[in-house]
Amino acid sequence: MNAEPINVTGTPIRGKGEVLLSVENISLRFGGVKAISDVSFDIRKGEIRAIIGPNGAGKTSMLNCINGFYQPQEGQIVFKGERRAKMRPHRAAAGGIARTFQNVALFKGMSTLDNIMTGRTLKMKKGFFWQVLRHGPAMREEIEHRRVVEDIIDFLQIEHIRKLPVGKLPYGLQKRVELGRALAMEPELLLLDEPMAGMNLEEKEDMCRFILDVNNQFGTTIALIEHDMGVVMDLSDRVVVLEYGRKIADGTPDEVKADQRVIDAYLGVAH
Amino acid sequence: MLYREAGQYKSNYASDMAVFPLREDRIGLGVMLAIALVAIPFLGNDFFIASVMIPFLVFSLAAIGLNILTGYTGLISLGTAAFMGVGAYSCYKLTTFFPHVNIIVLILVSGLFSAGIGVLFGLPSLRIKGFYLAVATLAAQFFLQWAFVRVPWLFNYNASGAIEVPQRTLFGLPITGAAATAETRYFVCLGLVVVMTWFASNLVHGRLGRSWMAVRDMDIAAELMGIKLLNAKLGAFAVSSYFAGVAGAMMIFFWYGGGEAADVFSIRLSFNILFMVIIGGLGSLIGSFFGAAFLSVLPTALKFGLPALGVPLTGATAEHVTFMLVGALIILFLIVEPHGLARLWQIGKQKLRTWPFPY
Questions:
Q1: Does residue B58 belong to any structural domain of this protein?
Q2: pLDDT in tens, chain A (271 residues)
Q3: Distance CA B64, CA B41 (A)
Q4: Cβ–Cβ contact A163 with B under 8 A
Q5: Is the peptide bond before B307 cis (omega within 30 degrees of 0)?
Q6: Among B4, B92, B173, B240, which residue's CB has the most CB atoms within a 10 Å radius?
Q7: SS in 3 state form for B101-162?
Q8: How far apart are CA B237 and CA B132, in angstroms?
């Protein structure tokens, strides 16, 4: 079956909604190495968009461009109708882009709770004076955000590790905490860089469920890099395929699966 | 009563987020404060209070300051003594300009000058970290110490280059200068240290503390959470230098009572405070107190305690033996627990929690 799932409530059909972010002719070079050349694609509101490709295709570099770690030499990124030439990571965060990393980038010395609370930093406004006193408004704000964080902890089923330092947690849980930290930012666009790398089957299934739930319940738009093709084809609404920094295919999972260039990229071509 | 959280239910987030969620910890804190407030002034003699307790309090505050920078934010500084010096000299200048303002107010204000200088010398931290930053802060140490000697305006053109601490009173009691008794000076120091430790604890448990630790643990991810590295790092430098500045002012006004301050705020003091933070435990406020106790109280205790126990030591020999013993103890502690005394304390509490059935 090729049809897109239609939402009963009448909201735009998945993958056909308004464009949230569009990448226009991005090129990124590191010295003489071309990481990305002339790639364009868009991410629509409410969809799960996968970015796939063989190792070194420029997928992570692409995410780094989107949230401002790298400045592409050419091309532009339009986010929420706003065209921007230069972007700093904290400005991207303020704009509503959250992200997880390929190799977990948690704050190792802090507890699960503190890690996720850190995701609320941008939403906390009370100034230095109240912070010094930690009473009155500062404490009320802290409690208000703690409540939100507890909802996330509940959602991800990590209540039991709330107060443990994350450095000592098993890998699967660390990935989950990292997702929680990103969710705490209440992002409009969530970038997931290999959320399932190194996980066993059960952990992968859990993570898939969380990603789908985040997408359904909070309406968060998700862009995801993943190597597990089963996961990608099941989760995503549309897939963009990169190879050697170029886009070689873009479409629904079924279209991409059938694309000869994608098959060649993954399986190799006889010469 | 056993040290246990069993039976202590938290029914709201405020009590769960308290700095001391356990009743036993709160009682322990109360006992410590009672000892500091009542037992020490009544049982201790002048020598003990003036040469052991006041230095301990001053060093604790300076160590908390450096711990905020190094332990919580992950920025190494070798300029602590210089920032303390800025606090001391600006407090001295302030007493000259505003002789009628209360000395406590002046000490707290002088920390602001130190904070400003700290931010200035913290600017390189935006581009460099680790050992290179340590070297950059070393520049602050050398430059400021040079300024303390070479800018006569700082010590009111005194021919000997020394600071003369004037007499100032609080509620009619002299608290600085020659007329101030050891007890009054001790009480003022204790009050300042308790209040400022409370402030530090509030800061590190709130949003700012979390952003500092985030910068320490993974600066890239911190930036992605919307934390501006510039603000977080310079903020840490400002708060850290503020604490150091107040500690420096306290050091000259309540402990030394004047003298050639430039020699006091030397690289040696910077290293000493860095060692206190490392031995006490990076990223731990209570560790700062442990470290300060270890490196300031222990040498004095050994120097005067060993002869009292009948070990015949005098003069230079006592000094050398003290150095050797303290050095050996530092190495021993770092081998036993590289994360400092605070970690030992944590482990001890954890053991106590499950005692007597650890399995």
A1: yes
A2: 344 444 444 444 565 678 899 999 999 999 888 999 999 999 999 999 999 998 889 999 999 999 888 989 988 899 888 887 677 888 889 889 999 998 889 999 899 999 999 999 888 888 888 888 888 888 899 999 999 999 999 999 999 999 999 998 998 899 999 999 999 999 999 999 999 888 889 999 999 999 999 999 989 999 999 988 888 999 999 999 999 999 999 999 999 888 888 888 888 777 6
A3: 24
A4: no
A5: no
A6: B240
A7: CCHHHHHHHHHHHHHHHHHHHHHHHHCCCCHHHHHHHHHHHHHHHHHHHHCHHHHCCCCCCC
A8: 16
- Return the CATH number at B57: 1.10.3470
Domains and CATH numbers, chain A: 1-96+187-271 (3.40.50.300), 106-186 (no CATH)
How many independent structural domains does chain B possess? 1
Task: Work out the end-to-end distance of chain B between its first and last CA atoms, rounded to an integer number of angstroms.
Answer: 20
* Chain A contact present for B210, CB below 8 A: yes
Query: The pTM is what?
Result: 0.90
Tell me how close the Cα of A11 comes to any Cα of chain B, in angstroms.
Answer: 30
Q: Which residues pair with A246 in a beta bridge?
A: A243
Cα(B22)–Cα(B358) distance, integer angstroms: 19
Question: Min CA distance, B278 vs chain A (Å)?
Answer: 16
Q: How far apart are CA A63 and CA A54, in angstroms?
A: 15
Instruction: Identify the CA nearest to B223 among candidates A225, A91, A21.
Output: A91
